[in-house]
Amino acid sequence: MTAIDNMTGKVIALVGGRSQENLNNVYGLNRAYQSYRQPGSAFKPLAVYTPALMFGYTPETTVYDIDVKTAQKPGVDISGLSGAAMPLRNAVEQSKNGVAYSVFYDIKPSYGLDFITDMKFDKIVPQDYTLSAALGGLTYGATTVQMAGGYCTLVNQGEYRDPSCLVSLKDSNGKELYQEEEPKRVYDAQASSTMLDILKGVLTNGTARSMKWSESSALPAAGKTGTTNGSKDGWFCGVTPYYTVSVWVGYDTPKTLDNLYGATYPAGIWKDAMLYLTQGTGIIDFN
User: pTM to 2 decimals?
Assistant: First the structure.
């Protein structure tokens, strides 16, 4: 798990595994920034839908939940496929893979993944420039730090800040060596705000409604579930006006798990962490 303070863009907490014993004696694997995993549908807002909003789509644009297996067959004209019609907003809330796949086909992987590489996702390789990336199907994947950095960018109206925990670095004479990177515009502000508005619906009407966030907090929240094939990886990446938290659950050696979905353990962990972080804060909305 990675938690970022939206105001500063700094990582304020990392959880690198269920247990971190013996760290005095041995360097442990900190999965928060050292393990690259398939992000599943949690990748869609960053690579597909916010780029699509900048491409001319709106929350009300009619999109089609095409059959992905059919679309992946050799020689199929994806533009000619149809499926259940729905507004883009509903497709995001219900995490419709066929919609993400067809929208990505329209905007093109090179366009969508440009936003990802702009946010320092450093394991995007040439083989990832395919339509499968729309569903988070990447060669190596992403870390919770990278995913949190991406969602924090949406909160900060499309401005990306390197998600580090460094605030100062001085030499032996006390001279400050650390220089803060300037924020980098990745998405436009309108697209980012619209994406957050859509992602609020994931918690109220969509795949994460079972979390019942609004019953526990009056703070607005937005986020996205992610589950990979065979439930080997479960994700929840979400934000409140104060913090961004991304959670991954799985095994180091991927294995199929019962009842691991983005809305189960990952969303539950996210909710507990976010409630802890935001206790005592004032009720404000996103900018």
Answer: 0.95
